[in-house]
TrEMBL record:
InterPro entries: SelO
Family according to the record: Belongs to the SELO family.
Organism: Oceanobacillus neutriphilus
Function recorded in the entry: Nucleotidyltransferase involved in the post-translational modification of proteins. It can catalyze the addition of adenosine monophosphate (AMP) or uridine monophosphate (UMP) to a protein, resulting in modifications known as AMPylation and UMPylation.
Binding, ATP: G89, G91, R92, K112, D124, G125, R175, R182, D261
Catalytic center residues: D251 (proton acceptor)
Name of the gene this protein is made from: ydiU
Catalytic activity: L-tyrosyl-[protein] + ATP = O-(5'-adenylyl)-L-tyrosyl-[protein] + diphosphate; L-seryl-[protein] + UTP = O-(5'-uridylyl)-L-seryl-[protein] + diphosphate; L-seryl-[protein] + ATP = 3-O-(5'-adenylyl)-L-seryl-[protein] + diphosphate; L-threonyl-[protein] + ATP = 3-O-(5'-adenylyl)-L-threonyl-[protein] + diphosphate
Chain sites annotated for binding Mg(2+): N252, D261
Protein name listed in UniProt: Protein nucleotidyltransferase YdiU
Keyword Chaperone: no
Keywords: ATP-binding, Magnesium, Manganese, Metal-binding, Nucleotide-binding, Nucleotidyltransferase, Transferase
Length: 485
C-alpha cells in the first residue's frame, strides 16, 4: 500500500549521476491559484500513485509543492531545428524525478510550462492551457492507438495570463516518459562535452534503455543499431496510423523510441503524402510522406555524435555508422510494409503485396479519400464512406485482386478481417474534433467534449456504436496547427 504521506511517490534521480554538464538544478516557478483540470487516474495507478490524495493536489502538479524525494532539474540538450544546429535544453520544463513503479519500471515525471530555467533563452518558460490540453489528448490518443509515446498525467490551469499573439490562460502539463534523453542530448555532449561526458551519457542511456547491451564490447555501435530500429518501428507506426508529428527536429527524437514533444502534430484526414499542418514548417520539411526520410536524417545526426565511441579511428567508424543508418532505411520500409499487410488482412506475404498496397494508396490520393475511413470501410465491408474512390472502376479492379488474395490465403477470410480490426483504428483524434473539445474547454470551461473524446480514444479499435460519431469526416477546411508554445 502506498504511504499516505508520500502518496505513492518513489522518486529517484539517477540522471544526476551524470556530470553536472548535463543538467542544472532548478525549482519550478510558483504559480497562482492552480486548479487541477484534468487528471489521469489510470496512469497514476500504473505509476503506483495514490489518487485518493493526488486528485486533490493541484499544488503538486503546478510545482508549488514538490513531492517527497524530488530533486528537480532542467536537462541540457542541443538539436537541429529545421536543419540548423543550436543549443536548446529544457526551457520550460522541469524534471521533478524518476518514478520507479511497483513493477520496477522507471519513468521521468516532468512539469511542462513551469517557468524559466537557465535554458529558456528569450522564452517565458510558460505554456498555455490549449496546447497543454492538446498534448494531453493527443498523447493519450496515441497510447490508445498503441503507438509508443510519452503520457500525460495531469493538466493544471493557473490564474496567470500568458503572452502569445494574444493573452492566453496559463497551464502546466505533467508529462510521463520512459526518459527525455534525445538525439539532441548526444549532440550536446558531442559538441560541447569531453569524450568522457559523451561516454558517460551513452553508458547511462544503454543501462537505462538497452540493458542487454551493457556487457557487449562494441556496445556503442549496437546501441546505434537498436535506437535506429526503434525509430524505424515508431515512424512506420506513425505512417500506418496517419500521424504527422510536425516538428521532428533532433531534439524531439527520444532515444527510448517514444513519440515526444507534441506541438503542431495532427492526423491526416484526406490521404496525401504532401500533407503538413504546422504553420512554422514553411517548406513542408516534416510533411507526412517525408517522415521516414527525416528519420534517416536524424539517425545520421545521432550516428555522427557517436562516432568517437564507435571507433578510435574516424575512418573506421564512418562506414560502420553508415551501415547502421542504412539498416534504419530498410527497417522503416519493412515495418511499414508488414503493418500495411496487417491493415489489409494479408497473412501470406508475397512479393506483389507492395504493389497492391501502393496501388490502393495511389487511388486514395487520386480520389481524395480519407485515410482512416478508407481502411475502416474496408474492415467493415461497408464501402460507403468514400464514394469517389469506391465507385471508380480502378478501385473495383483493385478490390477484386485484393479479395482474390484474401480468399486464397492459408488463413480463413474471417481471420483476415479480425486482423484488420486490430490494426485499423475506427477513430483517431481528428483535427476538427480536437479543436471542438479544446475550444469548449478553454473558452467555456466545458470539459465534457474533451472527456468524451478522450474516453472514445481509449480503445480506437473497439468499433462500438458510440464511437461512430467520431468517425464522421471533417468539414472541408484548411487546418493549421501552431507550435505548442
Ligand atoms: P519545442 O519546439 O517544444 O521542441 O521546443 C524547442 C526549444 O524551445 C526547447 O529548448 C524548449 O524548451 C524551448 N521553448 C519552447 N517554448 C518555450 C517557452 N515558452 N519558454 C522557454 N523556452 C521554450
Ligand atoms: Mg522539443
Amino acid at each position: 500500500m502506498p504511504d499516505k504521506r508520500n502518496q505513492g511517490w518513489n522518486l529517484e534521480d539517477t540522471y544526476q549521476q551524470l556530470p553536472d554538464f548535463f543538467y542544472t538544478s532548478v525549482k519550478p516557478a510558483k504559480s497562482d491559484q492552480p486548479a487541477l483540470d484534468v487528471y489521469n487516474e489510470k496512469l497514476a495507478a500504473e505509476l503506483g500513485l495514490d489518487s485518493s490524495h493526488l486528485k486533490n493536489e493541484p499544488e503538486l502538479f503546478s510545482g508549488n509543492h514538490l513531492p517527497e524525494g524530488s530533486k528537480p532539474i532542467a536537462q541540457a540538450y542541443a538539436g537541429h531545428q529545421f536543419g540548423n544546429f543550436t543549443m536548446l535544453g529544457d526551457g520550460r520544463a522541469v524534471l521533478i524525478g524518476e518514478q520507479v513503479t511497483p513493477n520496477g519500471k522507471r519513468f521521468d515525471i516532468q512539469l511542462k510550462g513551469s517557468g524559466k530555467t537557465p535554458y529558456s533563452r528569450r522564452g517565458d518558460g510558460k505554456a498555455a492551457l490549449g496546447p497543454m490540453l492538446r498534448e494531453y489528448l493527443i498523447s493519450e490518443g496515441m497510447h490508445g492507438l498503441r503507438i509508443p509515446t510519452s503520457r500525460s498525467l495531469a493538466v493544471v490551469a493557473t490564474a496567470e495570463e500568458i503572452q502569445r499573439e494574444v493573452l492566453l490562460p496559463g497551464a502546466i502539463l505533467t508529462r510521463v516518459a520512459a526518459s527525455h534523453i534525445r538525439v539532441g542530448t548526444f549532440q550536446y555532449a558531442r559538441n560541447w562535452g569531453s569524450k568522457d561526458d559523451l561516454q558517460a551519457l551513452a553508458d547511462y542511456t544503454i543501462a537505462r534503455h538497452y540493458p542487454e547491451l551493457v556487457k557487449e564490447e562494441n556496445r556503442y555501435l549496437l546501441f546505434l543499431y537498436k535506437v535506429a530500429e526503434k525509430q524505424a518501428a515508431l515512424i512506420a507506426d506513425w505512417q500506418l496510423k496517419g500521424f504527422i508529428h510536425g516538428v521532428v527536429n533532433t531534439d524531439n527524437v527520444a532515444i527510448s523510441g517514444e513519440t515526444i514533444d507534441y506541438g503542431p502534430c495532427a492526423f491526416l484526414d484526406q490521404y496525401d503524402p504532401k500533407t503538413f499542418f504546422s504553420s512554422i514548417d514553411h517548406q513542408g520539411r516534416y510533411a507526412y510522406g517525408n517522415q521516414p526520410g527525416i528519420g534517416a536524417w536524424n539517425m545520421a545526426r545521432f550516428a555522427e555524435s557517436l562516432l568517437v565511441l564507435i571507433d578510435d579511428e574516424e575512418e573506421q567508424a564512418i562506414p560502420k555508422a553508415k551501415e547502421a543508418v542504412e539498416a534504419y532505411v530498410k527497417s522503416v520500409e519493412g515495418y511499414w510494409l508488414d503493418g500495411m499487410r496487417l491493415k489489409l488482412g494479408i497473412v501470406d506475404k508475397s512479393e506483389d503485396d507492395k504493389g497492391l498496397i501502393n496501388n490502393l494508396l495511389d487511388l486514395m490520393e487520386k480520389y481524395y479519400a480519407d485515410y482512416t475511413n478508407t481502411f475502416r470501410s474496408l474492415t467493415l465491408k461497408q464501402l460507403d464512406s468514400e464514394p469517389g474512390l469506391f465507385q471508380s472502376t480502378a478501385f473495383k479492379e483493385w478490390y477484386q485482386l485484393w479479395q482474390d488474395k484474401l480468399q486464397n490465403q492459408s488463413a480463413p477470410i474471417e481471420e483476415a478481417y479480425q486482423l484488420m480490426k486490430r490494426h485499423n483504428p475506427s477513430i483517431i483524434p481528428r483535427n476538427y474534433l480536437v479543436e471542438e473539445a479544446l475550444t469548449a474547454a478553454v473558452e467555456e470551461g466545458d470539459y465534457k467534449p474533451f472527456h468524451a473524446l478522450l474516453a472514445a480514444l481509449e480503445n480506437p479499435y473497439a468499433y462500438t456504436k458510440e464511437q461512430e460519431k467520431y468517425a464522421v469526416k471533417p468539414p472541408e477546411q484548411d487546418y493549421q496547427t501552431f507550435c505548442g508554445t
